[in-house]
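User: Can you help me understand a structure? I only have the sequence.
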Amino acid sequence: MKKFTIPVLLLILILAYFTLRNPAPDQITSQLIAPAPDTTGFARAEGPVPLSFPADQGPHPDYLTEWWYYTGNLDTPDGDHFGFQLTFFRRALVPPAARATERESDWAADQVYLAHFALTDVAGGEFRSFERYSRGAADLAGAQAVPYHVWLENWAVEEIAPDTFHLFAQQDTLTLDLTLTNVKGNILQGDQGYSQKGPEPGNASYYISQPRLAATGQVTTAQGTFPVTGQAWMDHEYSTSALSEGQIGWDWFSVQLSNDTELMFFQLRRDDGTVDPFSSGTVIYPGGTTRPLTRQDFTITVLDTWRSPHSDAEYPARWQVEIPSEKLTITLEPWLADQELQTSVVYWEGAVQLTGTANGQSVTGNGYVEMTGYAEEFDGDF
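Assistant: Let's start by predicting it. Here is the structure, written out as tokens:
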């Protein structure tokens, strides 16, 4: 059986989707099924550059790939817990120089969008995930900086006031309707926003986070509509890169501690079982100042595992994380074991809870963990 790479598979699925929903002229179809043979002509992240807002919160179509990632943990007044994910992926079909300056059709597109929506219902013991594709044309999907708006059909995040956003997603019996307030502003990960993932030139991304978004709104399931409050996290990355040779996936963590500190850290896994030296992270202090973490600054110890009944992949399911220089030790575990997304790319992304100590004081908190490369070979590109 022929084995497709994930980018080619994605474009095949996109073509099938558009053929069924929106028959298009041959010119538009050819744009959707012709992946760039390489990354020549696309901009690359090759070092720190000045980032400005709100412009850099919007799209960067000269880069091959971009995503806006919203995750969060929510509680009802009765103490029931929900986790959520709403992610928008953009992928360029052709490099900037190959794009037409004038379009004969409103349906013509040189960008395609993919979105994932997932909800973890802890009280109901249920995790559900959904996936959508669309072209970046005819107002079906897109992203803009001013006013900030990212959308795919009726899944959307938009700025409704300075540093205040409306997030909405609806699928089947599930609805997520939240107002998010940016408490800590925009945090630049890595070196002034430049996050290196490997030794090759351009094997990096520009990486911006909003690590503490106060959330309020409602969640609707088949059991009813529930008022919720909590905390969310937003990651925005853009790049023209893939995993380096020997890198097979990653474990990414975002953590919001009860002492008003946040942590982001990830480890890139190699095919020989080791952790790649380009793994890194960031400590975000209560005042919004940051400290970068290198691979040597933290350890992640797996305490338990879980085997998926869907993909048969075995995932870590409980972790101890230590950052000695911060006098921090925390233990994280999933709110539900089964938070594996059954999408065109199978991966685990889910809500976690934690306890531990920081500088001799007890801390609690919540977070999100993403694990790729366990269910299938992963080349680092959705």
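Now, to help you interpret it: Residues 6-32+63-371 form a domain with the AttH-like fold fold (CATH 2.40.370.10). Residues 1-37 have pLDDT under 50 and may be disordered. Let me know which part you'd like to focus on.
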